[in-house]
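Repro:
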Amino acid sequence: MLYRKMSKTGDELSILGFGCMRLPQKNGKNANGRIDEERATKQIRYAIDHGVNYLDTAMPYHMGGSEPFLGRALADGYRERIELATKLPPWSVKIRQDMDNLLKVQLSKLKTDHIDYYLLHGLDGKSWEKIKDQGSLEFLDKAKADGRIINAGFSFHGDRDAFKEIIDAYNWEFCQIQYNFLDEQNQAGTEGLKYAAEKGIGVVIMEPLRGGNLVKKVPKAVQEIWDQAEIKRSPAEWAMRWVWNHQEVTVVLSGMNEEKHIEENIKIAGDAYPDSLTQKELDLIAKVRDTYRDLMKVGCTGCRYCMPCPSGVDIPACFELYNNANMFGEKFQAKIGYAWNLSGSHASQCKDCGKCEKACPQHLPVPKLLKDVSKEFEGLSLKPTLWLIKGFMAMQRSSSLRKARKLNN
């Protein structure tokens, strides 16, 4: 495991951080998307045992279950071996006292007396002005002075001008931005990355794989480019190495929830030095970037900040299937998945209230894009597709019952 120093704190942090937003979940009828605690605990402890020393969570992750889970998972001495990051949710703050109350709850859930790296969560220009006027900087000063938090930062999903304004407004130790080879110009972008680093502010990277979209079912046109590389690497390794190639980056978060992915990322983080990619390799990645941009219909990362939708639309799922249909040539499979899996939460249910668009970190025109999804998947074929699927499911169920009866006789 390689480590990089957080400039203002002197902390030597693993270049790979464990993001606790997408932990493995239980399957089954009554699981309700709950964290598979036994498996997730083993994963986190394995990562720590192999050098990862930065863990990132937040109050909303896993419907509020991530923080209390980590409080349990980091028992047996693991808490003392890592730097723990969590976030103040600005949308839950009405008055100044709310900040202290929220932090108190977080400390209790995490079973700790301090947060090593504490962030104002998901800022953009508008939310920054609100949380600043509510006394957030005073709160951070006080919490640092009495030891409840050690280092103060913010995560960001706004435009570059707002990012620079926030950077200049306080003596931050660190910040957290979305960054990958498709997002060089989006949000803070490369310019923001360099701006923060020039001021001695550590930079933690989120979404290096763009919500997994850079590694899920890699399009044939993209894989053909990867295959041209002299050194063979997985798409995940190419994407992670591209981020780590920037010397301004301190930590790259990965929402790891598969054992093989954890092992792979730890291995990659053992020799991913800054400025280690050749110009030929960088040119190859640029070709992949351009190909993805040609294929991608919606730049959704699946963060789910747009949810829940008041009209019941599963917005990220709609966009994922829409992208799959157009990026991976899975039009038939995507239509089947849309008709059946999203029954009751289709794009056409959108009432154009605008709530999702305001919440979207990518500032996507969500209602307009949902109309495109509806046009792609709905229309005259939707109901017949549902009837066919239901018929198939009924036949399969009947067949299974018959087999069960035979086994019982």
